[in-house]
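Narrative summary of target 7.
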Amino acid sequence: MKRSFSERVKAELASVTEDGASRDLASALLSSGGELDLLPEEILRGAKSTKAFLRGVFLSCGTVSDPAKAHHLELSFHDEQLATLVQTLLTKLHVDARILERKSESSLPARGQRSRESGERTSVPSAKETDARFAKRSKTYVLYMKEAEAIAGLLAMLGAGGAYCEYENAIIFRGLRNKANRQANCDNANTDKAVETAARQLEAIRRLDETTGLHNLPPQLEDAARKRLLHADLPLAELAKLLSPRVGKSGANHRLRKLEELAKLAKLAEPKRTN
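Modeled conformation, tokenized:
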């Protein structure tokens, strides 16, 4: 089974041998809930020891999302003081992370249900026991990051060079895909606008043909009108090449706009129908 991105990051960090003592201290502290006052001074001040300590923190309680799907890294603690300490260490390394407090509630089986572990039916709790046994609440302090560049930088800082490259590639690919989507949306919008404009031009030309007659138009406008009728789906730039005399896109647009203006005047000149 293919390992998740988070598992691959941890495997790479676990292979880093530099200052293993500081890394192992973090793991022991998180697993046993040791006293923060006992932390060696170099972990709080020395950059190398700090990074090794943070490496151990991530190995013990860290997760990071697949960059192809989302940008999210988090470290989960049951001790607020420890979460604040790690946040301070990250800040010293110019890494911005925020703390979120999560409340969780664990419940025992309802009265009369069988326990999944023992298979025995649960006893009926007293009124005093109810709150403690059925609503055991705990708090988790989550240090999280959502900025792609910041997450990639932290991975590199902790020693996960391979994961860093994979993350950067995913960021680049995602950026290119988003750019392509925006371009496609823009092209679709331009196409819709061109179709709408062409339909409006055709309606104006048909109105002129029914009222004043195309043959009564100035030669250049008559030519533009007949070419648009013959090539209704042609883009303006391509239509301009067919006009006589040949003009640029702006010249063709000017003639067609003039036709629309004449069609509006022709409509105003039509006698109003009476009932």
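The domain at 5-106+138-159 is CATH 3.10.28.10 (Endonuclease I-creI).
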